Amino acid sequence: MHLHKYERLWLFFGGASLVIFLIVLGVSAFAMDNQPPSGAYCAPGVALPETLDPQKVSETPPFNNPGIEKLSEDTYVVNMVAYSFGFQPSRIEVPEGSTVYFQVTTKDVVHGFEIPGTNTNMMLTPGYVNTIRQTFNETGEYLILCNEYCGLGHQFMSARVEVISQ
Amino acid sequence: MTQQQNAFNADDAKLIRVHLYVGYIAVFLGAIAGLLQGLQRGGMITLPSWLEYYQLLTAHGVLLALVFTTYFIIGFLYSGMSKNMGRLYDGPRIAGWIGFYLMTIGTAMAAVMIIIQEATVLYTFYAPLQASPYFYIGLALVVVGSWISGFSMFAQYRRWKKENKGKLSPLFSFLAVATMLLWFIATLGVAVTVLFQFIPWAFGLTKTIDVLLSRTLFWYFGHPLVYFWLLPAYIAWYVIIPKIIKGKIFSDSMARMAFVLFIIFSMPVGFHHQLLEPGISPFWKYLQVVLTFMVIIPSLMTAFSIFATFETAGRRLGATGVYDWFKKLPWSDVRFFAPMMGMLFFIPGGIGGIINASHQLDQMTHNTLFVTGHFHLTIASTVILTFFGITYWLMPVVTGRKLTPFANKLGMWQTILWTAGMVLMSGAMHTVGLLGSPRRTSYTTYQDHADALSWLPYHTVMAVGGVILFIAAMLMVYIVVYLAFFAPKGEEEYPMGEVSEYAEETPRFLENWKIWIAVSATLILIAYTIPIMNILEYGPPGSPPYRFW
């Protein structure tokens, strides 16, 4: 098929920048491990089920005992359960500079898990555990909110991370 | 050409008219729902206890994104086929009426369920929130009705090809068939999840539902859905606009090629809506991200073709120098001005889409108002302004009236208001979305959290933009009623473009649909087989229904 010379140039530059863009994304994802949250991946040395019976969340470890655990000096694991309309635990406290692994599941419908002002943002679908790692370098009260519609009280569904100075 | 051949077929006009009427009733109601929910979120009004924010949001999405678009697109595609094939054959036209009635019954069922609060599940109806089974049956009827209309267009095309052996099909009809083919392949996903998962579950025949499977099937449909909205706008840009600007279609074969690429690359991409969810491995997400970006190629081709058409038309009208042709465009003709504003909106709209679909950047924007801002630029500006631009001449064509200078002037104001309202609303949505404000959320300050309080001024700007858009929508409804029932009788021109005499002969392999369907099916199987097998094999037990409204 015949292409105008300018059209060939235009598509060449468009196509080439697209290829470069996709390589950047791919290198970032696979070589630098900047993958989107895709399940029970990032918890170091912590046993975590990939899936669980969504109707038996409160009997399945570690979600039978939601809360925060200290892994090492500045590393914490938070096992959290989302439900309409809240998170359990609803408030956690960590010292500044801490890295927190959030291991979260839902015991009813689909929820979101977002901490505004950070890169933490992931979906919680019934039967699956999702995980994300976040380092808190500044003190303050961080908001955890649900960003997926989950019912009439959706706008009330939130929790807090209190980052305190050492 | 005799007067008779030029006139629009009266039987076809009737079929197209009813599609436009239902579509604009949906615009009227959907705009009211949009206004109320925008004001509520902005904290400016409190809704009465019998009306829920999320109910309004469901109605707004269903009426504007699903009902208006589907009716308008089917009406518009029929009109072009009727125009450039002389008329719709009896079989396809009758099938068109059956499709119309099925869709209308389905729409009415879904609407009643939303009104009586049996379906406050938003227009994406994610399981395991469970609506009334009649809501899902209503949606299924809309899809089945649209299939009947789509297949009637295929039949129309086949019969024309048979009667005109060896001739190249008219461009509009080819593009219409491509659009409906894309729609058919896409809706298979939503049909499977609604028929085999949602309806049995909503009737209690199955106790639980596989949530991730339903989401995957939904998004297999959900992204090509946006190309189903976009392609008819592209048809107007490729085929209609050249005539309006007194130019010629730059290249017949490039238009056909672009649509074929859309059929191929719009399907295996649904995971970019599921980038942040568990149960799908990052490798498959990335593969679908790469495939998602392939649609940039036909979009670049379209941009080139359209601006080449603009420039050649301007030069034909005597433009000299580098940019003079831009001034020669008919800026005061609303049939051009409204779609042109839509095209300009597609530049930031497309960029926002690239951001959302990026493997990592989505982390910042997912489920925030940034996404809402994005699709108000693409569907609610690019596509809708183009559809409005089509309406100004299509409505008079099918009602036997004229687009008057008065209606043209109102249309110019409509476009300006819509553009201004959208710049405000969508601009605020993009900004506050980056700050973290979630989409689909009623008025809240999260117990006066500082971050949430800092979003409130943006929500106010969104509401102000929403008010301007509401006024623009009502003006559009007024223009539509005027053009349908009150404008002076006459014969409005159907601006069907002609291919430039300098364009190359179109290669015939483009009409070999079997190749494109096979390539599309192959890519779908590559992108989805293993992830879906994983979901079925390693997925958790299903979820019971919930009703949190």
Description:
The complex is a heterodimer of chains A (166) and B (549). Chain A has one helix at 5-31, and strands at 67-72, 75-83, 86-88, 91-95, 98-106, 111-114, 121-124, 130-136, 140-145, 158-164. With 166 residues, chain A is α+β, with helices and mostly antiparallel strands. In chain A, strands 1, 2, 3, 5 and 8 form a five-stranded mixed beta sheet that branches. In chain A, strands 4-10-9 form a three-stranded mixed beta sheet, with no helix packed on it. The termini of chain A are far apart. The mean pLDDT of chain A is 93. With 549 residues, chain B is an all-alpha fold. In chain B, helix 2 (10-41) packs antiparallel against helix 3 and helix 8 packs antiparallel against helix 10. The mean pLDDT of chain B is 94. Chains A and B meet through helix 1, strand 7 and strand 9 of A and helix 7, helix 8, helix 9, helix 10 and helix 13 of B.
